[in-house]
Amino acid sequence: MANNNQNGKLSREEAGRLGGEATAKNHDKEFYQEIGEKGGEATSKNHGKDFYQEIGEKGGEATSKNHGKDFYQEIGRKGGEARGNSDQSDSDGKMSREEAGRKGGEARARQRKNN
Questions:
Q1: pLDDT, tens digit, for every residue of 61-84?
Q2: pTM above 0.70?
Q3: Among 17, 31, 32, 45, which is disulfide-ready with 27 (CB 3.0 to 4.6 Å)?
Q4: Taking the domains of the chain in order of start, what are their residue ranges?
């Protein structure tokens, strides 16, 4: 059902929603991937390292506000499983789970101390 304003015209929101639905019907996943890639390339040309660090920090802060200890334990567990069962640094230069956990804990302790 269309939301008409006092003049019998579609509201801006309704027109946008209907346009989006029509576009979705006419295009496939590859279309959206292509325009997403183009947007990402344009953004990377217009913004430097500091921009990405800032939005990463904001995302991390938002995530920490929305998730508790259990969330971080679960993603840590999944990361450990994905990493494998090796407790030693691999020949490819990757650090062990123990070392990564120790470094992460130290970084978190420094963060808490500074805040």
A1: 999 899 988 999 999 988 888 877
A2: no
A3: 31
A4: 13-46, 49-84
